[in-house]
Amino acid sequence: MKEGTAISATKSLPPLDPRDPAGLGDLFTEDEKAIADAVRRVCADRIDPYVGEWFERGELPDVRGLAKDLGSLGVLGMHLEGYGCAGMSATEYGLACLELEATDSGIRSLVSVQGSLAMFAIWKWGSEEQKQQWLPSMAAGDAIGCFGLTEPDAGSDPASMRTRARRDGDDWILDGRKMWITNGSVADVAVVWAQTDKGVRGFVVPTDTPGFSAPEIKHKMSLRASVTSELVLDGVRLPADAVLPEVTGLKGPLSCLNEARFGIVWGSVGAARSCLQAAMAYAEDRTQFGKPISAFQLTQQKLVDMTLEYTKALLLAIHLGRRKDAGVLRPEQVSMGKLNNVREAIEICRTARTILGANGISLEYPVIRHMNNLESVLTYEGTVEMHTLVVGQAITGQSAFR
């Protein structure tokens, strides 16, 4: 017998973790694991005991207190450099999004909109004065931001936006409406995109500016533990230096959306994990015909299929995270991640619901809440149709958007 064969035959294998049967934990550094653990602990203490009630009531109480807690943790704009931001890696940011959405999609949305949309827009395209004015307080959670792009009649086609900005002397005057804006009613600053005579421009709008209002959208059946608003701009007068100086055209808002989509690639995996773990625990505890339902073949098939899709989604997220950290991640690859991972996550949640039976629709368990939330995640930051066409164009060279 060869020496290597003898060693391999006698060496004991590590135990298999039922929650990570493929051993994907080995792919993370100790620092990455520590960040995931820190976010998980804060969520377990600050959010998990209450989020089901918040969802049922359709509100997110004490948003400012929660934002400060998240700022103290360092997750607001955590992947940005300078200005009080943590400067962490894309993979570390992804793991934070995973843990936040394992708690609730609305909580991850709060962080994503703050860091990947509002803060990123100012960090990437703003003036030094705008960065100094807003980014440190936003990173600390002392100021909350929102991002105004989507309109009542312009969702997947932002080029057709009707919000306009016109010059009046040295000032800008903004008029228009934005819709489905996370954080809108509690924001201190809004990054608003508008048509101008020279193309789409972004504006940094303090929300106490006369003519700006943000009525909250009610009667949602998804993302209920989240503040969602309309932005109303009626003759909002801004100084000349309110415009983001470093970008003109849709490149500006689309670059921000790409940052937020990357967080969704990871966050959706967190929602899937939460439902998978709930289904596993329930199948072990629930007894029918004299044994736990986890002992039945059909239930095991569901659990195995869910585990496989969760594992593949996490592998894809890790791969895209490593590419982003290496500076070689393309927008089309983010579209692949968002399209696949949200689609598989929602299917995992629906399958978990069947394992829980009637209990699956109760807020005593997280499953129905994640199911409903993912219906929104499936649509925002690019619909299934849009990401399908992005990937289709990437692999065929043919555009099918029009």
Automatic annotation (TrEMBL):
Top-level taxon: Bacteria
Keyword Flavoprotein found: yes
Residues of the Acyl-CoA oxidase/dehydrogenase middle domain: 146-236
Named cofactor requirement(s): FAD
Residue ranges of every copy of the Acyl-CoA dehydrogenase/oxidase N-terminal domain listed in the record: 29-142
Reaction it catalyzes: glutaryl-CoA + oxidized [electron-transfer flavoprotein] + 2 H(+) = (2E)-butenoyl-CoA + reduced [electron-transfer flavoprotein] + CO2
Swiss-Prot/TrEMBL keywords: FAD, Flavoprotein, Oxidoreductase, Transit peptide
E.C. no: 1.3.8.6
Pathway: Amino-acid metabolism; lysine degradation; Amino-acid metabolism; tryptophan metabolism
Enzyme class per UniProt: oxidoreductase
Region annotation Disordered: where it falls in the sequence: 1-24
GO biological process: fatty acid beta-oxidation using acyl-CoA dehydrogenase; fatty-acyl-CoA biosynthetic process
Domain named Acyl-CoA dehydrogenase/oxidase C-terminal: residues: 249-395
Entry annotated with the keyword Oxidoreductase: yes
Pfam families linked to this entry: Acyl-CoA_dh_1, Acyl-CoA_dh_M, Acyl-CoA_dh_N
InterPro entries, per database record: Acyl-CoA_DH_CS, Acyl-CoA_Oxase/DH_mid-dom, Acyl-CoA_Oxase/DH_mid-dom_sf, AcylCo_DH-like_C, AcylCo_DH/oxidase_C, AcylCoA_DH/ox_N, AcylCoA_DH/ox_N_sf, AcylCoA_DH/oxidase_NM_dom_sf
Coiled-coil features, chain-numbered ranges: none
Molecular functions per Gene Ontology: fatty-acyl-CoA binding; flavin adenine dinucleotide binding; glutaryl-CoA dehydrogenase activity
Family stated for the protein in its record: Belongs to the acyl-CoA dehydrogenase family.
Name of this protein: glutaryl-CoA dehydrogenase (ETF)
